[in-house]
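FORM 12-B: Structure-to-Sequence Request
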């Protein structure tokens, strides 16, 4: 098992998903990659004030770098559609700053809240990655729980695909449960997997209601990759420090909820050998449904089965 390093530079950065992107690194199953990542908006330093523009990475390619600043793609030798890719989140360490916004973001929720056309609130955060505390210019202090918003692979269809919507193969999942110690399982859509990561979040609430988290660069993201030919997945699932979770993704929140619960019943059958009616009865007692995010066009719901809930 080898350890590799990827730094954010023109060769390793891209702002879209595509099966046609050449890999910047080829690894074997079991290898670890240590990344340093930019903030999602390609910022290389924080704005000097809430009214000042941030300095962004250049050069960027018009119409191809409009999305999150992603690092990759990484090819995993032997990966083929039909397999699953297990991504172990070994470590995530924030940089020293982050930015969050409220108002002025034209997603459906903010439009209904009357915030899309209102004054934009910009919060500039100083981050302490050791104490896991963030403080902004207004004196607010919050606890940090860093994770990566985007971890995933491109759709199997050729062409250029935006980074914003989460997909069955991962991507912009924005699931705050995927902290260090988690294992994310994704169906492999294309030969070689072509995995990318980015969109560092220092802290985020379920739903991500303003459209963003504390968006920040990551000083260190350590991921290990393992091919699983024993799993046949049709959507993301994960084992986290808090429990097992299954994710549902759809433009309709009810459909996303059904997908998350349906996948959880399948998982409970695998874990405990339960027939479906028993799994459903127990799920109503011990499984929590949480709204992952509602701001990326495709809504996300995750079902969480806490460790030790069924003995």
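FORM 12-B RESPONSE
SEQUENCE OUT:
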């Amino acid at each position: 098992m080898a350890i590799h390093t990827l730094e954010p530079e023109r060769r390793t950065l891209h702002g879209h998903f595509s099966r046609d992107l050449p890999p910047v690194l080829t690894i074997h199953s079991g290898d670890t990659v240590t990344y340093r990542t930019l903030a999602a908006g390609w910022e290389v330093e924080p704005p000097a004030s809430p009214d000042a523009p941030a300095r962004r990475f250049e050069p960027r390619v018009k119409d191809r770098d409009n999305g999150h600043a992603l690092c990759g793609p990484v090819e995993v030798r032997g990966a083929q559609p039909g397999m699953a890719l297990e991504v172990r989140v070994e470590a995530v360490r924030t940089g020293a700053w982050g930015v969050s916004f409220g108002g002025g973001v034209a997603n459906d929720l903010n439009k209904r809240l009357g915030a899309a056309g209102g004054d934009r609130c910009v919060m500039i955060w100083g981050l302490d990655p050791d104490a896991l505390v963030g403080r902004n210019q207004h004196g607010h202090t919050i606890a940090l729980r860093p994770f990566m918003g985007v971890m995933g692979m491109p759709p199997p269809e050729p062409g250029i695909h935006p980074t914003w919507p989460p997909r069955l193969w991962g991507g912009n999942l924005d699931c705050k449960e995927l902290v260090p110690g988690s294992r994310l399982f994704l169906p492999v859509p294309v030969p070689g997997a072509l995995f990318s990561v980015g969109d560092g979040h220092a802290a985020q609430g379920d739903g991500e209601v303003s459209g963003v988290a504390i968006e920040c660069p990551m000083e260190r993201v350590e991921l290990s990759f393992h091919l699983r030919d024993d799993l046949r997945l049709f959507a993301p699932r994960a084992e986290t420090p808090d429990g097992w979770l299954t994710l549902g993704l759809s433009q309709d929140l009810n459909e996303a909820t059904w997908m998350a619960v349906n996948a959880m019943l399948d998982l409970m059958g695998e874990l405990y050998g339960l027939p479906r009616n028993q799994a459903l009865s127990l799920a109503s007692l011990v499984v929590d449904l949480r709204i992952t995010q509602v701001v990326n066009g495709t809504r996300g719901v995750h079902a969480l089965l806490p460790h030790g809930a069924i003995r």
